[in-house]
Amino acid sequence: MPDQPAFPIVQIHSERDLLLAPYRHAVARLQHALVDPGDESALKAAALRGAEQARVTAWDAAFATLGLRWASTGATSVTDPFLAAFDASGFVPATLELSTGGQAPLEQGQARIAAPLFALAEWELFKLRGNRQRLEHAFGLLKADFDYREHQVRRRNGLLSGSPGAYNLHATGRFMLGGRVVPSLAGGANWIDASCMYALNARVLAEVARALNRKEDAGELEWVFRDVAAKINARMWHEDDGWYYDLDEHGEPLAMKTLASVWAVWSGVAPRSSIERMAKRLSDPTQFERAHPWCTVAAGEGDYRRRDGMPVGVARADFNLLVGESLAAGHLHAAAFKGTEQHLARVAKVLKDSGEVYLAYDPDRDSPAPLGDGSSGSDSPLALALCIQNTLGGLFGLRPHGQRGELEITPMLEDRHVIENIPFAYGLVNLEVGAADKSGARRRIDVMCDVPFRLRVRDGDRSSVQEVQPGMHTLHG
Questions:
Q1: β-sheet bridge partners, residue 422
Q2: Are residues 471 and 447 in the same domain?
Q3: Pairing with 444, which of 33, 181, 330, 357 sits 20 to 30 Å away (CA)?
Q4: In degrees rounded to 5, what are phi and psi of residue 370?
Q5: In this structure, is residue 5 part of a structural domain?
Q6: Is pLDDT above 60 for 2?
Q7: Using one digit for the tens of pLDDT, what is the confidence trace for 217-273?
Q8: 2-16, 40-54, 78-92, 262-276: the lowest-pLDDT one
């Protein structure tokens, strides 16, 4: 069994400290959420346990790495076994079998089309850890994966679909009959999430290429991003509704409003005007803003709930992370913070009642919602890892920019709060942010670190940067 990962110690000096219960629960349980190579598996590196006992998935690995990277010791990336299991054509597999460490033999067709989120995971790892050698190695593998997609997966119209399981299509209720995704309905369509994830993949790989001084690769990838983004905005944006929609095999919109469209924001595809209109939908209680934000299916959809009362759309930790990161990327930090705070409050309430954290919740009730396979997802490993990212990234506003040597914090919490043992570059950083002054004075930030870095303090669209040397310092920002 892997060693217990060591994550930052956090505290809020007010009753809001209750929001940190899911984080502390996740940190305590994560050791059991990891599976190590050895007697239990033939994987090449530690992985995150999946919903199925015998498999681990690329979706879980990519999302979970965003939270696990904050560990100062222990497993930081559960994408490693996937990067070590490329098939002969240079393609990242969607799932791995524990027994073989490789892709299931029966999943060599459409099911190979895993969500291409590994470039994002590697880029975020680099921004926090600064491991250039790892980034070089990962770029070579992921560029081969990208080339495979560009020549074998992308359609003539420039858009994409994928494999329902690999993209967790059931979570958004699209292409479903009788509670199950119908592959024949999904196969001919063009998916907004798959197309935007592809664009995100190209954009992030271009950033990685620039960081590695690979100018030709960066130019090629940037061109692909702009090409895909232009096609998405021309064909999938619905001006009257202010939302992006899937297209059927004839190129006609499939007007089901789901959170899948928010990938257009995180990927950088959506222009500012579209982001602002989408943000209004996300904060509209007749659409996505629910008691537990955000619901994966708009409340205005006719099949928002099935006849048995079960929700078609749910509040899921991974989709909430998608929305929070997208709002932050659109500089809507207050909206991102509000949603994350409400999400953690609901998770904390269910945790207090049940003693467990779940991946999916009923958006209108304090209860878990069943996953696509009917299981409850209690203490889902992915949910545990996402508790960490939603807390450190969403609630505390930590953003690493390792390529610039900057650690950014957006202190939206008005209460005094402490984050100790934050791994950054090759050292550790402690931050204590003072309570907000009602007069609007700058907040006191006490810093202790053993590595030089730049601290960026963001307040909305404004920010200030201060050089910090090893030792103890009192700053104001």
A1: 429
A2: yes
A3: 330
A4: -65, 145
A5: no
A6: no
A7: 999 999 999 999 999 999 999 999 999 999 999 999 998 999 999 999 999 999 999
A8: 78-92
Sign of the Cα pseudo-torsion (431, 437, 443, 444, in order): negative
How far, in Å, CA of 361 to CA of 77, rounded? 26
pLDDT, tens digit, 9 for 90 and up, residues 307-356: 666 777 889 999 999 999 999 999 999 999 999 999 999 999 999 999 99
Distance of CA 339 to the CA centre of its chain: 15
Rounded to 10 degrees, the C-alpha dihedral 360/363/365/368 comes to: -10
And the tokens for 44?
Answer: 């090449």
Question: What is the distance between the alpha carbons of residues 231 and 251, in angstroms, rounded to a whole number?
Answer: 12
CB 62 within 8 A of CB 114: no
* 387 and 461 both lie in a single domain: no
Range of 413's domain? Answer: 400-477
**Cut 0.85: pTM above it:** yes
Is the domain of 138 the same as that of 237?
A: yes
Spatial separation of the C-alpha atoms in residues 303 and 299, rounded to whole Å:
9
Three-class DSSP category at 213: coil
pLDDT band of 114, cuts 50, 70, 90: low
Within a domain: 7 = no
Dump the DSSP string for 374-394.
S---BT-HHHHHHHHHIIIII
Count of domains forming the chain = 2
